[in-house]
Specification:
Elements: E1 14-20, E2 25-26, E3 31-35, E4 56-64, E5 83-88, E6 91-97, E7 103-107, E8 112-119, E9 125-126, E10 151-153, E11 165-168, E12 172-179, E13 198-203, E14 206-212, E15 218-221, E16 227-233, E17 245-247, H1 270-286, E18 296-300, H2 309-319, E19 328-331, H3 339-352, E20 356-360, E21 367-368, E22 373-374, E23 388-392, H4 407-413, E24 421-425, H5 431-446, H6 452-464, H7 473-476, E25 477-480, E26 494-499, E27 511-520, E28 526-533, E29 539-547, E30 551-552, E31 559-565, E32 570-579, E33 587-596, E34 608-615, E35 620-625, E36 648-653, E37 659-663, E38 669-675, E39 680-684
Parallel strand pairs: 2-12, 3-12, 4-11, 18-19, 18-20, 20-23, 23-24
Antiparallel strand pairs: 1-16, 3-17, 4-7, 5-6, 5-8, 8-10, 9-11, 12-15, 13-14, 13-16, 21-22, 24-25, 26-27, 27-32, 28-31, 28-33, 29-32, 30-31, 33-34, 35-38, 36-37, 36-39
Length: 685
């Protein structure tokens, strides 16, 4: 459905499993209700008289900044009912309130110098000021002062309509209960909110908070910690404010933003299917480590009226991708004089091994640019490392024509060569639209997302949340490949192992020594490595040494800065401490060493290591009898009274290999006392 404007309530009048992460805001939990036939007449929206024709001067939008980035994204709605003051000479000159769409304007004001002031509603705060590069979509109010910069206005000049204000409230769930007059499950223009509806917030099935919808039908639950929540319309409403009303249909409408990570294997037969499946598996399980994991081939067409393709490519190559020295720019008419040279460089670069091959420029269904790289050139490849193609262009992924093979299809299914996946266009596009998805794809990869499907979805989300008019790319860009593919990007792999001497048994007052071995077995340098080992309270007076020497992390007594670890580098930390002499009961002592880095590290399994030692393991006594098992059933039956003396008994501690021996007495009994607790093997001979 259209998450911004649909009704989300299920048959229980609830929305479940609403996730709050990183104190984000979730303001799309809406409930629509429409009147029964008996109440339909009274529910008709009142008509609003036309507003007088006034001269608009200063204003624009107050918006919910749901992602708290200071930018008015296209999916972020206006906030109604917010008081806005216009100040002249530091005095309130006039006041207005945002309308149902969050718009405000000051009209018919004389020439002068003014400032706009926002009065945030309770629990709301002003977002970041002047973010991004587009004045039309940033927030223009200082978050501390609540004021814009001075605005000079001359009556009756054209309106200054870009004074936007973003408000946020971290950890908030909410939105609106509204009167769905046409019962279509969507918030249409003119459909009013329903005030006074009791809303319940639940966690683990229990109500933890309640609130009422305001005069415009809005409700909020503020200041929520990260977690999973449910929102429900309280049942008491159906004998009160919602009596006679019916829940609107759920999840109506649609938007072009994908709800799933989708991929396609464009195959025609079992051989092609097997090639793509096996290639995908081999890419994840058998790809070698090496510099290819940092290498991107940046291919660009020459600049023309359709775009500065060099500059578009450079935005990633120079500003986002962290390994420019390992990558290669192949720019037509900039550093390669003709199409043949471009083609040769692309083929050679793929054969050498690359993580990505990107292309910015013109193309047809079968060819990048003016013969730069054609589908038949796939057959000229001899690569054993399979890159991912990211063409920012037109048509070259069009798979729907059964009589024509596109370049992207040829690349991903040709036996033994080509690409492991291609995120390709199936239709036309323009460079200014491509730039959103291109930049966001790499920005999210560098930030730590390495699964291909989520990377393409996050890239599309960047375009979806923009005010770009080229959202058709949300439909036309298709992943030819596995969306669950783990991109084999170069990363660090820091690990730590914590050890104590084997078979250690401790008493109060004893000394224990831990050894922490750490290393980076990844391809790239692990930056800003921090090692933490918080000793439990039963360990006193620790003495710490390290090789190479480490310094304490600022403000910490149990974390050390290991600096930057090059691939293959590592070290050792030794911690010696005294077991608390006051311990009087058997006590297990467990502590964990942790290692972290600011570099990309996709293997978290080796980022911590724990050790448990036991203090005051009380000695145990082991014993038994030897008897003649007359019936051979291995059970000591009551009639079996004849015991066997002088049987040699061997007791072996499995963990330490310590051996204890004894003989059965005249009654066949044996006993070994004072043995440390453990696991034993007992033999008789």
């Amino acid at each position: 459905g259209d998450e911004e404007y649909d009704s989300d309530g299920n048959s229980a009048h609830a929305v479940t499993d609403i996730q709050i992460r990183n104190q984000e805001m979730e303001l799309t939990v809406d409930f629509g209700y429409y009147p029964s036939v008996a109440n339909a007449l009274s529910a008709q929206a009142a008509t609003t008289p036309d507003a007088p024709n006034l001269v608009k001067a200063i204003g624009d939008m107050v918006f919910w900044d749901e992602d708290r980035d200071g930018i008015w994204d296209s999916n972020e709605r206006g906030m109604p009912g917010v008081t806005i003051n216009l100040l002249a000479n530091n005095t309130v000159f006039t006041t207005t309130v945002t309308d149902a769409s969050g718009n405000y304007f000051f009209e018919d004001i004389p020439s002068g110098v003014y400032q706009v002031q926002v009065v945030p509603p309770p629990n709301w705060q002003i977002t970041l000021q002047d973010q991004g590069t587009d004045e039309r979509y940033d927030s223009d109010v200082d978050p501390v002062l609540g004021l814009t910069v001075p605005i000079t206005y001359t009556f009756p000049q054209s309106a200054q309509a870009d004074w936007d204000i973003g408000l946020m409230s971290p950890g908030t769930i909410g939105n609106r209960v509204w009167l769905d007059n046409n019962a279509n499950g969507l918030q249409d223009n003119g459909e009013p909110g329903i005030p006074g509806v009791q809303m319940d917030l639940l966690q683990n099935g229990s109500v933890i908070s309640t609130t009422l919808t305001d005069a415009l039908g809005y409700y909020y639950f503020f200041g929520l910690p990260d977690g999973s929540y449910d929102v429900q319309v309280d049942s008491s409403n159906f004998s009160g404010v919602l009596a006679g009303y019916v829940l609107s249909p759920q999840d109506q409408g649609y938007d072009t933003m994908p709800d799933l990570h989708l991929g396609r294997f464009p195959v025609n037969n079992a051989t092609e299917a097997s090639e793509m499946v096996n290639r995908t598996i081999a890419y994840e399980t058998s790809s070698p480590t090496g510099d290819w994991q940092k290498r991107v081939l940046f291919v660009a067409d020459n600049t023309d009226a359709a775009g500065n393709f060099y500059a578009h490519s450079d935005e990633v190559a120079d500003n986002i991708w962290p390994y420019p020295a390992d990558s290669q720019k192949i720019y037509y008419l900039q550093n390669y004089a003709n199409s043949a040279d471009v083609k040769a460089a692309i083929i050679d670069g793929i054969n050498q091994g690359a993580l990505f091959v990107t292309y910015n420029g013109h193309s047809s269904k079968r060819t990048w640019g003016d013969g730069f790289f054609d589908r038949v050139d796939i057959n000229s490849l001899s690569n054993t490392i399979f890159p991912i193609f990211l063409p920012m262009t037109c048509l070259e992924g069009q798979y729907i024509n059964p009589g024509f093979i596109s370049l992207a299809e040829q690349a991903v299914r040709t036996t033994g060569k080509g690409a492991v996946a291609s995120w390709s266009p199936t239709g036309l596009g323009v460079a200014t639209g491509h730039q959103f998805i291109y930049n966001a794809f790499f920005a999210n990869l560098v930030s730590g997302e390495t699964m291909l499907g989520p990377l393409t979805t996050l890239a599309k989300q960047s375009l979806f949340e923009s005010h770009s008019t080229f959202r058709d790319l949300l439909d036309t860009y298709i992943l030819l490949g596995d969306p669950a593919l783990a991109v084999q990007v170069a990363d660090a792999d820091v690990g730590i192992v914590k050890d104590v001497p084997p078979g250690l048994s401790l008493s109060p007052g004893d000394t224990i020594t831990y050894t922490l071995s750490y290393s980076n077995t990844g391809v790239i340098t692990a930056t800003q490595v921090i090692i933490t080992d918080t000793l439990p309270g039963q360990l006193l007076n620790p003495i710490i040494s390290s090789n190479p020497p480490l310094s304490l992390h600022p403000g910490s007594s149990d974390s050390w800065d290991a600096g930057d670890l090059a691939p293959g580098a590592g070290g050792m930390i030794t911690i010696t401490a005294t077991v608390d002499p006051s311990i009087t009961q058997p006590t297990p002592i467990t502590n964990t060493a942790l290692i972290s880095t600011t570099a990309l590290d996709t293997n978290s399994a080796n980022n911590q290591s724990s050790v448990t030692v036991n203090v005051l393991d009380l000695p145990v006594t082991l014993g038994g009898v030897a008897w003649y098992d007359i019936n051979g059933n291995t059970l000591h039956d009551t009639q079996e009274t004849l015991m066997v003396p002088n049987v040699f008994i061997t007791v072996t501690d499995i963990s330490t290999a310590q051996v204890y021996t004894t003989l059965t007495d005249s009654n066949g009994a044996w006993q070994v006392s004072g043995v440390p607790a453990g696991t034993f093997q007992i033999d008789a001979s």
